[in-house]
Every structure is written in C-alpha cells, then in structure tokens.
Amino acid sequence: MTTTWPLVSVVDDDESVRESLPDLLRQFGFAVQAFSSAEEFLDSECVRETRCLILDVAMPGMSGPELQRELTLRRREIPIVFITAHRDDSIRPRMLEQGAVECLFKPFSDTALLEAVNTALGVD
Amino acid sequence: MSEPAKSRIQLPLEAFPEGAVPLESIISTQELRNRPSRPPEYEKENGALVALASALADSPPTILQTLADKVLELLHADSAGLSLLTKDEKRFYWAAVAGAWRPLAGADAPRNFGPCGDVLDRNVPTLFSHWERRYPYLSWAMPLADEGLLVPFYVSGKAVGTIWAVAHDERRKFDAEDLRLLERMSRFASAAYQTVKFIENLRLEIAARERAESEVRELANGLETQVRARTQELERSTRELLVTNSKLEKEIAERKLVEERLLQEERELKRSEAFLAEAQRLSSTGSFWWRVATDDIIWSEEAYRIFEFDRGTPITLERILTRVHPEDVKVFHETADRARRTGSDFECQYRLLMSDRSVKHLQVIAHGNPDQSGRPEYLGAVQDVTERRLSEEALNKLRSELAHVARVTSLGTLTASIAHEVNQPLSGIITNASTCLRMLDDEPPNVEGARETARRTIRDGNRASEVITRLRALFGKKAATQESLDLNEAIREVIALLLSELRRNGVILRTDLADDLPPVAGDRVQLQQVVLNLLLNASEAMSGVEDRPRQLVVKTERDGVDRVRLSVQDSGMGVDPLELERLFETFYTTKNGGMGIGLSVSRSIIESHQGGLWAAPNDGPGATFAFSIPLGPDRPAPLEQP
Fold first, then answer.
1. How far apart (Å, rounded) are the C-alpha atoms in residues B273 and B71?
2. Chain A: nearest CA to B428, how far in angstroms?
3. Taking CB atoms and an 8 Å limit, are A17 and B428 in contact across chains?
4. ∠B538-B543-B545 over CA atoms, to 5°?
5. Is residue B347 exposed (0-12), middle (13-18) or buried (19+ Cβ within 10 Å)?
6. Conformational region of residue B133, where left means phi above 0, alpha means psi within -120 to 50, and beta covers everything else
7. Which terminus of chain A is less hemmed in, N or C, by CB atoms within 10 Å?
8. Is the torsion defined by CA of B68, B69, B75, B80 positive or negative?
9. CA–CA separation, A87 vs A110, rounded Å?
C-alpha cells in the first residue's frame, strides 16, 4: 500500500465489468475510474494520472490494442492489463509481446487481478 | 322543161258544146297552096338563124323566147309561141309567147281539146281558122285568132310540142313560104328544146348533184361532226374507261390490300389466339364470360381443362358447383350472389375437389360490365394456382429451414461465441463475489457493500442463465447432413427467396451459372445459408451506392478439376485490403448493428466442406466474396460438423 493511492482506469464496453471491477479494485485500495470506450478514456484527464490501465481487447470503435498503440504514439507509457472474454490461446503471447503487463481471460480471479495490477504498478 | 305552176293564166275549159263544129271545119291547110307565096327573105332568115344560134350558145334559158320572137318577126305574125306537152302528156304549156298574146305566156290548154292536140294527132302542120268555133275557151284569148299556123316538132321521133304563129287581122293570110319558115323554125325548135331540155336536165342534174353533193357534204359534215362527236365521245369514253380502269385497278389493289390485311389480321388473330391458348395453357389460366341475365357461360379451352370437363360441353353454375370443394361452396355462392346483385368486379379464391380426390386451388378475377339490358356481364380469368400454392408452401418450408440454419452456426465458431456470451456474465459473477467476500472480511464488515455486490452477482448469474437459454434457443439441434447436390439449383432457390429483397434495395442481379457444373457433396441447407449470407452482405454493401448501378453478379464455375467455385461480386463500398482477414473474425463488423457473425460462420461452414471462403477487392468498385468446395459425389461419409 502506498500513501497516495494510485489511479487504476478500467476501459470496457461491458457494463457489468464497469460496475463490478472498480468495487473490487477499491477493495484492494486503488483509486478507480471506469470508461466505456477507448475514445472516452483518451478524452479524459485521467490519461495523465492513470498508473495502470485495465483494458478490454474487443470493443466497438477503437479496440484495446489500438488504444495501446495510440498511447505509445502519445508517449504515455501506461502499464496495461488486457482482459478478454474471447478465449484464444494465441492472444495472450501476442499481447505480452506487444508490451502488455498481463492478459487475463474472463472470468478471472481476484488474486490474478491483484497480481497483475501490482505487477503493473511495480509493486511486489 | 320545168312544169308550169298550175296555169298562171287559166283558159276556161269547156267540153265540146252542143253544136261544136267538126274539126275539119276549122282546118284550112289546103288553102296554103292556093294562096300566092311571098318571096323568101333569106337575109332576114339567116339573120334570125344566126341570132338563134348565138342565143342558143350564149343564153340557152331564153332560147325558146328568142325562137318565139324570131317566128313572130319572120312570119310577120301578130302572135307567136311554143307549146310544149307536159310530162304527164295531159296538157300543153305555153312555154314562150311573143306578140299580142305575150301576156298569155305560161298559160296552158288541154291535150285532147285544142288545136295543139289536133296537130299532134294528125302529125302534120296545120292551118286553123277561127278555132274558137270548135274550142270556145280560145275566145277568151284576145285578140281572137283569125288564122293559126301550127307545126309539131319532135325529139327522137316523138312529138313534144308545137310551134305556132297567129294572125289576128283577117287581111293577113299565111302562105306556103310561112309554112316553110315555120317548119324550119320547128326543126330549130327541136334543137332548142333538146338544148334547153338538156340544159335543164343538166341544171337539174347539176342541182341534183349539187344537192346530192351538199347532202353528201352535209351528210359528210354531219358524219364528220358525228365522227368528231363520236370520236370525242369515244375519247371521253376512253378517258372515262381509263379513269374507271385505273379506279378499278386501284380498287382492286386496295381490295387486295384489304384482303391481304384481312388475311394478315386473320393470321395474326389466329396467331394471337394460338398465343393466347398457349399462354393460357402455360399459365394455367382459363378465361370465361358470364351473362348474369341468362346465366350463359362461355369458357376457354383452358378453363375446361382446369375443371376437367369435356371441351365444349355446356357450362352452368350448377355444373361448376359439382367440382367446388365442399368447404368452399359457401364462399362460391356468396361471391356469385354478390356479383349478380352488384355487377362490380370481383376476385376470389376457392378450391376444387376433383373426381380423383385431388385438390386444385383456383384464383378468379372478373371484370363486370352492364349488358344491353343493364344486367351485369362478366369477363374473367380463372387460374389454377395449385402449383404456386404448393411451391409457396415448399418455399415457406425452405425459408424456415434457412431461417433456422441462420441461427445455427458451426460448432467451432460457436464454442468461441458461446464462451464469449457466457464469459461476460461469469466475469461479473466472480468479480462481484470476490468483492463481496472482501467486504465481509473488512473490519468492520462492509455489509451494505457486500449486499450490493451479492445482488449484482445474482443479477449476473441470471444474465448468464439467460445467455445459455438464448443460445440453446438460437442454436436448435440440427444434424448436419451429407448429400450430393446441384449447387446451381441450391443457389437458385436462395435467389428466389431473395429476389424481392434485392429488388427493394435496387440491386440489379446477374446470374452466370455454369451449365456443366458437377454435383457437390455437402449439407444443402448450410451451403444455402452461406450463399444467403454472401448475397445479403453484398446487397447491404451497396445500399449507400447512388452514383452507379448496384450490380450483383452471382457466378458459378469449375475450379480446377475437382472443385467448383461460387463468386458473389458487388459494386458496393469495397473493403480495405488490410481489413480483409478481419472480416472473418467472429465479432468483426463494419456495419452498424450488423451481426458480423455471418462471415465467420460462413467460413466455418465452407471449411467443414473442405473448402475455402475468401474476399478480394474488385478492380473497380466493390468486392468479391467467393468460396470453392470440392466435388464430392463419391465422398464416402457425411461430414461431421467441426
């Protein structure tokens, strides 16, 4: 735990994720902001403050990987944990290769999430 | 010599009066010889003859008068003249008179009652004295003749008249010299008479000839006129004939034309009748005519065929009713009654129950018109729509099958999509449950938060359950089958389903299906689903196209030796070559509200048929989607769905 609570942002088009995930993350002690699309996140102030991004892969409009590339272009190197409901074993290695901290398949456990976020935040 | 006009001077005629002296008593010819003869005056005589000759030459018409004058002169007579027998020989005509009796010229006297006749009868020159004693009418010729010397003259031996000299003074007595002179004159008279006669005849002849000529001329003129007139008439007639002829020719030509036209029309009529009959046969449409007033019904050949009545047999409503399906009799009656009452157009459908228990579906349309009596008269068409009904039913069945398959995807793609659908709520459940537990573990337990997350857990659980239910409903169990099928036929069935949809979207469909396409093996319904997806996608891809035809080309062909290929080419918005592969991702869509699942399912189906499905941009606008599958009549076993 740190004295200043790091901001974790959640970007997912699925509403139930946006409802449930922030509560769990707060339970872990993080500050949380949820966004329903990549575009919404990019337009917000949180881009600069976010210490960890929990990002859905497949979304209408800009997809997760596309947001990742956009942030790279903007030199906003935010650690990213991808989440996806589409279980494809080839996705995880690809995501990790492209710089993701972790790629979690829905549904995932609270510990797997905490582990990934901590990794992202550089906390052991 | 011209006949005298009936006596200008008529001497009174008397029959011999009682006591008329005999002829002999008035003739004193004998005395001539007894009287002393005066000496001849030859010079005077010659002069007279020369005058006569020249008169004869110069003016023949006056020769008789000249002769009378010369007799008077030579004989020293008181009167002299010539009497000529008329043509009918009944009278004497005093042709020329000189001296005291000159005014009597032109008079006439009877042939048989006068001195002239006596002279001709006696045929000798005769001297008369006081002839009025025998012929009283001569007393009218004044002055009275004391003596009269008459000499007959002849033409061709026939006495034609007398030449005479009269002495009124009893002191003047004719003698032998007078007789000689008168005889000489009489010969001249004969010549003169002949000349005159000749001239007269000539004149007559000439006149006659002239008359004849003029008649001829007139006749000729008349003829000419007639000929001219006739010629003109003929010319006119000829012209008229020509005109008439040309008119006739024209008329004949026109009539021929009319006949030809009639023939042509007849041929065309026959042809259109044939066409109509053929069209009626092909379309299973009969026509009918129904006069309500008399219930007369006339049917076309096809109508007889539809009802299976012998052609030409009389048709009545009762007869028709024997064929109408019992369940439709009521409808039939209602329609007929309404038609009778209103005379307005009607349209109805009913069934026939044929003798072999088969059922025919009929569609009837009729147009009503009032007849002469004002009652309705109907002209209508009756169509056997049984086959259409049957194919509609078949089509509906096929459509529902296809609709079913539209929901059924191949299992391989389904695994992912079902997992996705279920994983979303599962993810919520687990996260919420985890949160709930953590809240309960808090010191103090965050009961309110836990309750909230527990509620969400339940909600997400229900949601997962709904997804499962929905998926089960969506993907009803349907075993894939394997059969040998004609891809073209399968495609045509799909096109038949889609035609109205394509039309509504303004799509121009062109099919180019190979005639010699061998059968393929596969699941007919699944392949049709793929085709349906491709066609719908293509149609949708062109929905925004306004500046060019929305053309859709469906083509089948052999692909190498052991495959067939279907390609669907649109002229739509096209696809980005870089995006091509993503099109086939399960949830990829370029369309708002699009399913997206179509292409991935389609590819899955095609792959299950050992085939491939791909997309490529066109050279021009639009894209082409195609699949290729192997021929498979002798593929041994049905394909398992992946």
1. 122
2. 6
3. yes
4. 105
5. exposed
6. alpha
7. C
8. positive
9. 18
Q: Which two tokens stand for residue A50?
A: 């976010």
The answer to whether B533 touches B602, Cβ cutoff 8 Å, is yes
Gap between the Cα atoms of B69 and B79, Å rounded: 9
Torsion of CA B237, B243, B245, B246, to 10 degrees: 160
pLDDT of residue A8: 95
CB–CB contact B434 A14 (8 Å): no
Residue B568: exposure state from Cβ atoms within 10 A (0-12, 13-18, ≥19): buried
Q: In a 3-state reduction of DSSP, which class is residue A117?
A: helix
What is the arithmetic mean of pLDDT over B467-475?
Answer: 59
Query: Nearest chain B Cα to A87, which residue?
Result: B416
pLDDT at B258 over 60: yes
- Tokens 């010079």 map to which residue? B43
What residues of B are in contact with residue A86 (Cβ under 8 Å)?
Answer: 416, 419-420, 423, 586-587
- Average pLDDT of the residues in B259-280: 77
Band of pLDDT at residue B403, cut at 50, 70 and 90: very low
* Residue in A closest to B449 by C-alpha: A23
**ipTM above 0.85?**
yes
Cβ within 8 Å, pair A23-B423? no
Question: Quick one: tokens of B138?
Answer: 């001569």
Stretch 38-57 of chain A: residues touching chain B, C-beta under 8 Å:
none
Amino acid making up residue B638:
P
> To the nearest whole angstrom, how far is the Cα of B594 from the nearest Cα of chain A?
12
pLDDT at A1: 43
3-class DSSP state of B160: strand
What are the distances in angstroms from CA B486 to CA A38, B35, B220, B605, B630?
49, 174, 107, 17, 13
Strand A80-84 to A50-56 pairing: parallel
